[in-house]
Write a structure and sequence with these properties.
This protein is α/β, with parallel strands linked by helices. About 40% of the residues lie in helices and about 15% in strands. The protein has 2 domains: about 15-295, Homocysteine-binding-like domain (TIM Barrel), CATH 3.20.20.330; about 325-615, Alpha-Beta Barrel (TIM Barrel). The strands form 3 sheets. Strands 1-10-7-6-5-4-3-2 form an 8-stranded parallel sheet. The two termini are about 40 Å apart.
């Protein structure tokens, strides 16, 4: 599948955000401070700025990492913090996306090193390339969707930056040079030379940013359009005019209305990516959004808006009817994909992901319940929205961590009334791992006790034996971690869950089929065959950094040495190698389990769809046991 950014770009002009540094300055960060370090010292401020741009209508937000290379950071004594600053910059942008719920793209912002490259200058090109590679690796680790290399004035430096990016990833690249008032870069490159060089480098989008304002930027872009003859999309993100010193303040003069006119002309000229640079604000972006929403260019449809369908009257419940999942277990090879709820009030991104997965043929969607004990939208609420708006059956992650015995049963009754009847019973990560480490966990029962309660509901009784009026029709899943170091304990616990009445097992992600085979053998030696269907957990890796982070820092995920080595050797092809590994595991699993459970990272649901391309049909190969 095409990268979602490239696919979106093919459907018409896309709006990027505006200035970050200017906004930090306006909100109290001194000009002499290191703006990139604010990611660490005041992440909320950065998140708030990202959020304002998203709410203004930006479809791309750039990370606060413009100067976060080792050469720039060493001027502030922070060269040792390249990884931490860039990774946090990406996380801050992702946090803003999660809070707003809008499906925006996260672009890793990469600016100039400030060094003159040899032979004209004294800095060896490979040193610059190493610095860019170091920065880009950290941005990848933080989960960016694309890269924007911007405000570059030397073509030689741009080459090093692009080559560094290609050394470590295959993400789309927007490459933007900056031009002076004479229509050339400060090193004398013409627009024709720049666009030819960028096309030769194979970047996704070529363009102009910063420079001297909208009007000169349009003139340069029109020259680049003529020279490129439509062979590459172009971008333009100008400054809000020349800055002026007024008292103790730096002021940019170009108004939001002026930028609305710029957006209108840029779209009419055929510019594909439009945004702002220094001095532009959320108000400028909102003004451009208003123009882009009404201006229709032939052949360039507006970006799709997720329609919220009118809620239909709820049909009478039919508790005797098994869920679609229950009907397919043991008859077809079942595929489910996990979606994390947003951290804010807007579910649009999650619903868009569910729609994408539905179109890829996914029939079931798991919704996690505040994973890693971090506060998110109610999983129950998102399940209801997905089932109502996207019409895909969900599997609700339901933890005992946050609910006492009364709350558990109330939520189960409500879930059933909403038609959410596939439950994976979980104890839940302890609050000490998450946002509120001093929050009080409940744990009136654990996951085994929860299974027993749900099965009691299916008999028409609550946990105390009182009637609930009719028999429920829940399908109950349980979790299993075949990568745990003490497998005998995990085997015993899984057996207890199955004895309590589990209808299926869903495993934590594994990265080699032998891991499951070894676990299965140990289980069968103690208890005989697993008597219920199993969905094997598969997590497509994104990069070597991503693999190492999961292995070393995320509880419950353990990679094999072979998987880690393959990701290391993959280098810039990490995402593709991760997909290949997931596809290999999927095909091997066909003969051993009853389905798979995919867990895409960073909300990249298109990766799950790509993994499933090797699944020709949903025919069940392994016979159901028991």
């Amino acid at each position: 599948m095409a990268h979602p950014f490239i696919e979106r770009l093919s459907r018409g002009p896309i709006l990027c955000d505006g200035a970050m540094g200017t906004q930090l300055y306006e909100r109290g960060v001194p000009l002499e401070a290191c703006f990139d370090e604010v990611n660490l010292s005041n992440p909320k401020l950065v998140i708030d700025i990202h959020r304002d741009y998203i709410l203004a209508g930006a479809e791309i937000i750039e990370t606060n990492s413009f100067g976060a290379n080792r050469f720039k950071l060493e001027q502030h004594g922070l060269a040792s913090l390249v990884r931490q600053i860039n990774r946090q910059a990406a996380r801050n942008a992702r946090e803003a996306r999660e809070i707003t719920g809008h499906p925006v793209f996260i672009a890793g912002s990469i600016g100039p090193t400030g060094r003159m490259l040899a032979p004209i200058g004294t800095t060896p090109p490979d040193h610059v390339r190493d610095a860019y590679r170091e920065q880009i690796e950290a941005l990848l680790e933080g989960g960016v969707d694309l890269l924007i290399i911007e405000t570059i004035s030397q073509l030689d430096e741009m080459r090093q930056a692009v080559q560094a990016a290609r050394d470590v990833c295959d993400l789309p690249i927007v490459a933007q040079m900056t031009f002076a008032s004479d229509g050339r870069t400060i090193h004398g490159h013409t627009p024709e030379e720049v666009v030819a060089a960028l096309m030769e480098l194979g970047v996704t989008v070529a363009g102009v940013n910063c420079s001297v304002g909208p009007r000169p930027t349009l003139e340069v872009l029109r020259t680049m359009l003529s020279a490129s003859r439509g062979r590459i999309p172009l971008s333009g993100q100008p400054n809000a005019g020349w800055p002026r010193q007024v008292g103790n303040r730096v002021i940019f003069t170009a108004s939001p209305d002026y930028f609305a006119d710029y957006a209108r002309e840029a779209m009419s000229s055929g510019i594909s990516l439009i945004g702002g640079c220094c001095g532009t604000t959320p108000a400028h972006i909102q003004a451009m959004r208003s123009v882009m929403d009404v201006l229709q260019i032939p052949g360039s449809p507006r970006p799709p808006v997720i329609e919220v369908k009118q809620r239909r009257p709820r049909e009478p419940l039919a508790p005797e009817e098994p869920t679609k999942l229950a009907q397919k277990l043991g008859r077809e090879f079942v595929v489910s994909v996990e979606i994390d709820p947003p951290k804010g009030l807007n579910p649009r991104k999650a619903l868009a992901g569910a729609q994408l997965l539905k179109e890829a043929g996914v029939e079931f969607i798991n919704v996690a319940d505040s994973p890693m004990a971090r506060v998110r939208m109610s999983a129950l609420a998102l399940c209801a929205l997905i089932q109502q708006e996207v019409e895909v059956e969900t599997i609700l992650h339901f933890t005992t961590r946050d609910r006492n015995l009364m709350g558990l049963q109330s939520d189960l009754i409500g879930a059933h009334a909403l038609g959410i009847r596939n439950i994976i019973a979980l104890t839940g990560d302890p609050p000490t791992l998450g946002d509120y480490p001093h929050a009080t966990p409940v744990y009136d029962v654990d996951s085994i006790g929860l299974v027993k309660i749900i099965k009691q509901f299916n008999r028409g009784l609550d946990a105390g034996g009182a009637s609930i009026g009719q028999m429920a029709s829940f399908t109950v899943a349980v979790a299993c971690d075949p990568t745990r170091p003490h497998l005998d304990e995990e085997v015993d616990r899984l057996h207890q869950k199955i004895e309590a009445g589990a209808d299926l097992v869903m495993t934590q992600p594994i990265f080699a089929i032998r891991v499951w085979i070894d676990f299965l053998k140990r289980y069968e030696e103690r208890y005989g065959p697993i008597g219920v269907p199993v969905l094997l957990g598969i997590l497509p890796l994104q990069s070597h950094r991503h693999a190492e982070f999961l292995h070393n820092e995320v509880p419950g995920i353990t990679l094999t040495d072979e998987a880690r080595e393959r990701m290391r050797l993959a280098g810039p092809e990490g995402r593709r190698e991760g997909v290949r590994m997931a596809q290999e595991l999927l095909l091997e699993a066909r003969e051993l389990v009853h389905g798979v459970y995919l867990m895409p990272s960073f909300g990249r649901y298109e990766v799950a769809a790509e993994v499933l391309e090797v699944l020709p049909d949903r025919r069940l190969v392994v016979p159901q046991k028991g």
